[in-house]
Amino acid sequence: MSPAAALLAHVEQLAHPRRMRELALFARGIAGTPELHDLLADLAARGPYERRVALHMAMAVRDLDHVARALAGPDLDLRRAALRAVRTLPVPDDDAARVLDDAPEVLRRAFYRTLLHARRHALADRLLPEVRERWGEREAAALLPACGPATVARSLDGLVHAVPSWRAIGKHHPGPLLDLAERRWMAVRHWTHAAHADPARVLALLERRGLGPRAQLIPEAFFALLARTDPGRTGRLLLGDRRGRRRRPGKTLRRYLRSCPDSELLRVVPSHEHTLACLLASLPAGRRGWIFRAAVERRGGPFPGLGALRLLDLLPPADAAAEARRMLDWHGSVWHSARARLDDPALPLRMTAYLPYDEASGPLAEAATDGDPRRRGPARTLLVECAARTGDPVTLTECVGGLAPRLLNERDPLRGVLPEALARVRPHLLTGELVPDLRRLSATAIEAKDSSAATRRAFGDLAARVLRHLDDPALVSWALETCGAVIARDGARGRLDLILRRGQEHDLLDVLRPHLDAARERGDLTPAISLARALRRRAFGIAELQDDLRTAAPGDREAAALWLAAGESGGCSSCWRRRRRRSPCRGCGTSWPPAAPTSSCPPSGPRSPSWPERSGGGHRRSARRCARCWRRRPPTRPGPSTSGTGRRGRWRRWRGPTIRPPPPRRSSTGPTTRRRGRR
Predict the structure, then answer these.
(1) Is the separation of the CB atoms in 486 and 493 below 8 Å?
(2) How far is it, in rounded angstroms, from Cα 452 to Cα 224?
(3) Kind plus residue range of the DSSP H or E element containing 352
């Protein structure tokens, strides 16, 4: 056997990292000897894998002649692998430039990136004219970031139309890029990558040029960098961008608006309602009123028609009520052309809901008992929202008490109106006095035959909000009952571990225990699996759920995964490695896992031989073997590889009889799926 074949056989069964290390150490051990030269020549004359091994050993001993032959060889994959030597070793420029001889575009682009990361500016400067002449300006622009600053400053003007990556230019040559931006117009997004080098210069350039027509494409991190240099100038720049103010302000502008002087805000107050809505949403609630009045004064009058309808949620109560009265007068005054598209029965109710509660409760309560369901449903939602704006829990309780009796006999689409509205109310307004009405409503809506998933989801969302934010015993008890009823009807969904407080998972289990027991009697463990999935880590400490998961693990992959996750995260000290599939061992024929015990942990005492023991490199294969069918392989590798840490050599299978089920009999009269015909 030749030295090359012996070396390859020696490292064949090693993992890749250790194989590369062994090859490098062996090459350095025989560096400078004719043996290494003959070995590299023998490997280079073989296949692609052997040539890659030879290149790796040559790079380990810094054999630049072998690397130069690989860079100019016919194997294009080997050429690309040898580019790492151009980046890490002092390969001569002439040898490195031979990569471009008859090289495809992919290899050329990889070579340009190598020159960039290796900072070989001299070689890139020398190759730039040749690349531009042979392959055009597009490839020359791709090579430009690897060149020196002087070459970039001299050539960037002629290649500006072909630059494929302004990020690379701005990162490695910010000075020439900013010089070019000052000489000629360029889109801001092209030279934002140079801001890290000189933020003050970039900020001054933006103040002279502006952000441009496509400012929304500029990343927020760019403005954050400028704000660290000068927050005031950056905020004024963003406020002065009239195109960008039509979108929601970014984090940098919102941070500036919190401390922006009133005089600066007054200079940039917009007159368009959508732009004004974006600005008001970024301001504290105490500064929105006078900003709105300043915008109306700048316009010379109120917003036409219903243009201020989207602003009512953002305005103080007094300004919102005044604007709502004006729009109600305009909408109900005379017939106008806008009525053709604004003839919505709920539209006047939406404006009425922003009036004071004493003034709005009468029309809304009358509409809540109207015969038209298009007005009845929105009116009830708006009445609850109007009561919640008062901030008085008593007013909200009286409002819900007046609506609850009417909802008991409603059809399903209107049953979910009240819980949806209450789920958007601030939690501190919900008190225990709401529990009797909520209990009657939830029991009727969830248990009804025509109950829809949307209605049950609305009650579930309200219960989750109560559990997450409130600690009133009556409300918490109702919320647990409602969650249990929804889970019993639809199964557990979402993330209950993010909703329930510590210990409430046991209270929820007590509520669901009759439903889970009934499902176990039917042999259905799906409710337990869905509950464990929704509880996530909270289910690890519930032995009842873990028993159900263990019972369902052989036939359900999700149950097996949840059960294994609980075992790997903790459990008792006698827990061992568990497996997900139930299949007979190929060695002895035993099946595992065994029958489920009464708890999630195995019984104390010796382990069952049908379970796989924990193993180092071979534990992935133990899913097909039991513990007594594995044997240690004696160390047969010479030298440093006798430790047996390789994945292939750590364990040896017992080649016992293969247990296979007999093939099914094919009936002479039964159906067949052969293409020739069917019986």
Answers:
(1) no
(2) 47
(3) helix 347-352
Pairing of strands 630-632, 651-653: antiparallel
Q: Which residues contact 643 (CB under 8 A, 6 or more apart)?
A: 635
CB 50 within 8 A of CB 4: yes
Helix %, strand %, coil % for the chain, to 5?
65, 0, 35
Q: Which two tokens stand for residue 429?
A: 């307004």
Beta bridge partners of 631: 652
User: If 0-12 CB within 10 Å is exposed, 13-18 middle and 19+ buried, where does residue 434 land?
Assistant: buried
Q: What angle do CA 257, 424, 494 make, to 5 degrees?
A: 105
- C-alpha dist (Å) from residue 100 to 103, 134, 592: 5, 11, 61
Alpha-carbon distance 246 to 248, whole Å?
7
What is the reported pLDDT for 668?
A: 37
Sign of the four-CA dihedral 444, 449, 451, 457: positive
Q: Where are the alpha helices (DSSP H) in 61-135?
A: 64-71, 76-88, 93-97, 105-118, 121-135
- Which of 355, 331, 360 has its CA nearest to residue 344? 331
Report the alpha-carbon distance of residue 467 to residue 588 in Å, rounded. Answer: 53
Using the 8-state DSSP alphabet, how is residue 613 labeled?
Answer: P
Q: Tell me how long the chain is.
A: 679
Residues 6+ apart with CB under 8 A from 439: 478, 481
Residue 584 in contact with residue 659, Cβ under 8 Å? Answer: yes
Q: Is 328:348 a contact under the CB 8 Å cutoff? A: yes
pLDDT tens digits for range 258-315: 777 877 778 778 777 887 888 888 888 888 888 899 888 888 888 887 888 889 999 9
Number of other CB atoms surrounding residue 320 within 10 Å: 22
Model pLDDT for residues 62-110, shown as the tens digit of each residue:
999 999 999 998 999 999 999 999 999 999 999 999 999 889 999 999 9
**Tens digits of per-residue pLDDT, 608-630?**
333 333 333 333 333 333 333 33
- In tens, the pLDDT along 386-401 reads 999 999 999 999 999 9
Q: Which residues pair with 652 in a beta bridge?
A: 631
Residue 652, SS3 per DSSP:
strand
- The H or E element that residue 44 is part of is helix 34-44
Residue 528 backbone dihedrals phi, psi, to 5 degrees = -65, -40
Write down the mean pLDDT value for the chain.
Answer: 79
With 0.90 as the threshold, say if the pTM is over it: no
Residues 237 and 260: their CA atoms lie apart, in Å, by 13
- Give the span between the Cα atoms of 668 and 657, in whole angstroms: 32
Cα–Cα distance, 584 to 610 (Å, whole number): 9
Burial 482-507 (b: 16+ CB within 10 A, else e): bbbbbbbeeebeeebeebbeeebbeb
192-222 tens-digit pLDDT: 788 888 888 888 888 887 776 666 667 778 8
* 593 upstream amide cis, omega within 30 of 0: yes
Query: What are the residues whose beta carbons fall under 8 Å from the beta carbon of 244, sequence distance 6 or more?
Result: 211, 215, 216, 238
Specify the 3-state DSSP secondary structure of 651.
strand
Q: In the chain, what is the straight-line distance between the N-terminal and C-terminal CA atoms, in Å?
A: 61
Tally of helices (H runs) and strands (E runs) in the chain: 36, 4
CB atoms within 10 A of CB 640: 10
d(CA 371, CA 352): 19
